């Protein structure tokens, strides 16, 4: 990364947040926060989930109002009462979860809400011309006439960026922009960010991935417990410094303890076939983590759903703890000892409006044992309180809604709930996606402890370090097919990356044998 000046003599910052404070009932989200962002700068904002990053960005984007402090744009005080005010002031937000209408074209998505009219009719010609100019200026080429449902993830993100630029944004907030991208798409995004910087725009880059922060940013602000604990040029930082500021300790690594050969087979698939999976065969033993690596969209989600019994299969078999579960529904598979950390905690794991103890009741084997005939609220609250304390979940009580927790704390709650039922087999789909390094360390430790305690873990992840660090053996999923299992110690990140993209192949594994 080439150095970039953070300011010019006599030119004010594009954004300056001074002494921002924000409180919610029982929680101080921001306390005396300061942030200065200059034109032509990629400014990273990092911190644990719950540290206050999102609240600060919502204040800048007009979604929340501060209790104290002031906002200056181009050196002038500004009052941003809504996102519409922020957009009018030149601030745009590229959300982690894309806000696109899949049945509309790229052009229709970009202009939606900002349509130009001529004689009372939509002026498509003018809109198309402006979109083409913006695309060419920033090197963001996307076919304006294709429907969004036909686009890949990286191209959809380009559409989100174009939506913001079309509205004249000079400050772009990116919320975890690489969370859903494969490596090639990440590189393309970073090239786009560099182009925005060269054009004098300001980019606020929120991420948990410190290697990406150090690679792409010019300046870093670290937030902990609602306030800034570090503000420095990226050239003056390294991952150890930043991680110490974020969590008050060293950066955790997913390295497993002594590798094991595994015990009795707890999960066995033979020739399992779905609409997106071709004859998947694998075995996971007790006391083992089997990693499934692969670029997202190659059948991993469908494989997990088929094992859980929520997706139909056309061939093959599923055995859980020695029992044929192929024709069993999800409830009966769970009774055999199957648990799951799903890939999307909001859609598949949590009832966000419900309280923490109500969410723990969902699938808690321990609570079922304590309360057979009725809901024992006291027992549920007690178990939830114990879980909150043991995992360091930042929550004032078991009675707060799950929606009030940060992403990392929500994920710790889900992992703790699934392990609390003392399962025999755990499906862990992207267990640390979108969580900070502190929550990551807790979840990795829980998985290692569970594996050492005899649990069979099927780990699905697109994070090469996570797969190699935690797994005893690894299989790669490419275009719906599983490769042969390889001991994790025999793989490097480079070789695993080649296997994931198909530039190197391992034979499919029709007959797996666990030692």
Automatic annotation (TrEMBL):
Superkingdom, natural source: Bacteria
Recorded GO MF terms: ATP binding; ATP hydrolysis activity
Major localization listed first in the record, in broad terms: membrane
Membrane topology: Peripheral membrane protein
Keywords associated with the record: ATP-binding, Cell membrane, Membrane, Nucleotide-binding, Repeat, Sugar transport, Translocase, Transport
InterPro entries the record matches: AAA+_ATPase, ABC_carbohydrate_import_ATPase, ABC_transporter-like_ATP-bd, ABC_transporter-like_CS, P-loop_NTPase
Ranges for domain ABC transporter: 15-250, 260-504
Keyword ATP-binding belongs to the record: yes
Subcellular location: Cell membrane
Pfam name, any one: ABC_tran
Key word S-adenosyl-L-methionine present: no
Cellular component aspect of the GO annotation: plasma membrane
Name of the protein described by the UniProt record: Simple sugar transport system ATP-binding protein
Protein species of origin: Streptosporangium becharense
């Amino acid at each position: 990364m080439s150095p970039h000046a953070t300011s010019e003599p006599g030119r004010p910052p594009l954004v300056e947040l001074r002494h921002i404070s924000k409180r919610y009932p029982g929680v101080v989200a921001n306390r005396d926060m300061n942030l200065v962002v200059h034109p032509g700068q990629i400014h990273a904002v990092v911190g644990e989930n719950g540290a206050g990053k999102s609240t600060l960005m919502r204040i800048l984007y007009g979604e929340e109002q501060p209790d104290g402090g002031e906002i200056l744009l181009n050196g002038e005080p500004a009052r941003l009462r809504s996102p519409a005010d922020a957009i009018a002031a030149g601030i745009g937000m590229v959300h982690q979860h894309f806000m696109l209408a899949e049945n509309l074209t790229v052009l229709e998505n970009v202009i939606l809400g900002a349509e130009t009219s001529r004689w009372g009719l939509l002026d498509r010609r003018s809109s198309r011309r402006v979109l083409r100019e913006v695309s060419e200026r920033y090197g963001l080429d996307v076919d304006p006439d294709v429907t969004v449902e036909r686009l890949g993830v990286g191209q959809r993100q380009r559409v989100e960026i174009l939506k913001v630029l079309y509205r004249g944004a000079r400050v772009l907030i990116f919320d975890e922009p690489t969370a859903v991208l494969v490596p090639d798409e990440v590189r393309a995004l970073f090239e786009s960010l560099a182009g925005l910087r060269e054009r004098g725009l300001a980019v606020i880059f929120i991420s948990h991935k410190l290697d990406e922060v150090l690679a792409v940013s010019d300046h870093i602000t670290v937030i902990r417990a609602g306030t800034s604990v570090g503000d420095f040029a990226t050239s003056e930082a390294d991952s150890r410094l930043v991680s110490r500021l974020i969590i008050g300790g060293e950066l955790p690594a997913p390295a497993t303890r002594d590798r094991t050969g595994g015990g009795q087979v707890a999960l066995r698939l033979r020739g399992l076939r779905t609409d997106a999976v071709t004859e998947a065969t694998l075995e996971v033993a007790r006391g083992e983590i089997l990693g499934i690596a692969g670029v997202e969209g190659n059948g991993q989600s469908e494989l997990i759903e088929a094992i859980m019994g929520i997706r139909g299969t056309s061939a093959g078999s599923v055995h859980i703890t020695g029992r044929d579960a192929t024709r069993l529904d999800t409830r009966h598979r769970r009774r055999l000892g199957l648990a799951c950390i799903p890939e999307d905690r909001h859609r598949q794991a949590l009832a966000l409006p419900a309280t923490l103890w109500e969410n723990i009741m969902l699938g808690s084997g321990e609570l079922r044992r304590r309360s057979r005939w009725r809901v024992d609220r006291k027992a549920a609250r007690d178990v939830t309180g114990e879980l909150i304390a043991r995992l360091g979940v930042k929550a004032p009580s078991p009675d707060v809604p799950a929606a009030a927790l940060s992403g990392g704390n929500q994920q710790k709650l889900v992992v703790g709930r699934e392990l609390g039922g003392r399962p025999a087999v755990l499906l862990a789909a992207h267990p640390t996606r979108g969580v900070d390094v502190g929550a990551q360390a807790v979840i990795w430790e829980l998985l290692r402890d569970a594996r050492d305690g005899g649990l069979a873990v099927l780990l699905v992840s697109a994070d090469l370090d996570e797969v190699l660090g935690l797994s005893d053996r690894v299989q790669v999923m490419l275009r719906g097919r599983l490769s042969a299992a390889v001991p994790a110690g025999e793989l490097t990140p480079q070789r695993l990356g080649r296997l994931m993209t198909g530039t190197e192949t391992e034979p499919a594994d029709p007959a797996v044998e666990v030692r």
